Amino acid sequence: MANTENVQRFNELITKVKAELRRDVVGQDEIVDNVIIAIVAGGNVLLEGVPGVGKTRLVRSLSKVLSLPFSRIQFTPDLMPSDVTGTVVINKDENGRMTSEFRRGPIFANLVLADEINRATPKTQSAMLEVMQEHKVTVANETHKLDEPFFVLATENPIEQDGTYPLPEAQMDRFMFKLVMKFPSESELSDIVKMTQITMDETAGAVLEGASILEMRALASTVPVIDEVLDYAVRLVSGTHPEIENTSDTAKKYVKYGASPRAAQALITCAKVRALMNGNYNVSYADIDALAAPVLRHRIKINYAAVSDRLTVDDVIAKLIKETKK
């Protein structure tokens, strides 16, 4: 159970993680907080942003701070599923006998950076589905489990369309959060230039290891959620479905497809971590509101009416929150 000592220790570790990340990442405070929340909660993250805003640098720095085995997969149109998961090869021993051996792919790491994941073909993207959801790989009818903790942090460039393959809804739903990294302010850009003039390498030091992350996850799972807050999160997710009777007016007007049940699960799971990060012993309405956009923005599809009214997905989510609170 979460007590004063446990919560204080939790906050101390998170503070140290943030301090080390600040040595490599300028600004992007909300992004850093949400990535940490997702990792402690055990979820995958999709990072979207234009080139050069620090997506890859953030992930590489995280691997150092969390002291986890790290691998990077550069997704390209010619990347094959076996290039991700691994393959079975045939070897000949000294006696001339043929033996088979499974050679692990780069997915066998604790922290995996899937760089520009929308450049891979749907066949290769689908190879990530079982790994991201089940934390295991099946090759030649043999299942191989991945070591825990396991996270996939994928990046995508929202600008380029040529040579890209939009992620299907089933795979998007595997990501706990979709985070949008915005272009830095002038002062932040100045700090980035000064930092990279000194060194392009990440300088963050190790703070946590895998066992500590699993302990923090177990502690977060004990944070209580009162029925009223749970009901609010459920109504918020249900309110994204225009086909449901008595749904929100916002969904009827602006939403084409609503969020899956995983959205409600992610909201509550991550809200528990956020509560602990803020020194609270239970989940509040504010925790649900703060995480609604990262959880929902890739799980709902807005319709032409929203586009016509110049509303973004985040604008629609804000309307859903306001309407749910009535």
Key structural traits:
globular, five-stranded parallel sheet, about 325 residues, alpha/beta, Helicase, Ruva Protein, domain 3, single chain, 2 domains, about 15% strand
Describe the protein's topology:
Blueprint: H1 4-21, H2 29-41, E1 44-48, H3 55-65, E2 70-74, H4 81-85, E3 86-92, E4 98-104, E5 111-115, H5 122-134, E6 136-139, E7 142-145, E8 151-156, H6 169-172, E9 175-180, H7 186-198, H8 210-221, H9 227-238, H10 249-254, E10 255-257, H11 261-277, H12 285-296, E11 301-302, H13 304-308, H14 313-324
Parallel strand pairs: 1-8, 1-9, 2-5, 5-8
Antiparallel strand pairs: 3-4, 6-7, 10-11
CATH topology of the largest domain: Rossmann fold
Number of helices: 14
Radius of gyration: 21 Å
Extract low-pLDDT stretches. none
Order of helices and strands: HHEHEHEEEHEEEHEHHHHEHHEHH
CATH architectural category of the largest domain: 3-Layer(aba) Sandwich
Strand content: 15-25%
Main pleated-sheet profile: 5 strands, parallel
If strands are numbered along the chain, what order do they take across the biggest sheet?
A: 2-5-8-1-9
Compute the separation of the termini in Å.
Answer: 33 Å
SS-based class: alpha/beta
Task: Please report the total strand number as a whole number.
Answer: 11
The portion of residues assigned to helices is 40-55%
Number of domains: 2
Give the name of the CATH superfamily of the largest domain: P-loop containing nucleotide triphosphate hydrolases
Name of the CATH class of the largest domain: Alpha Beta
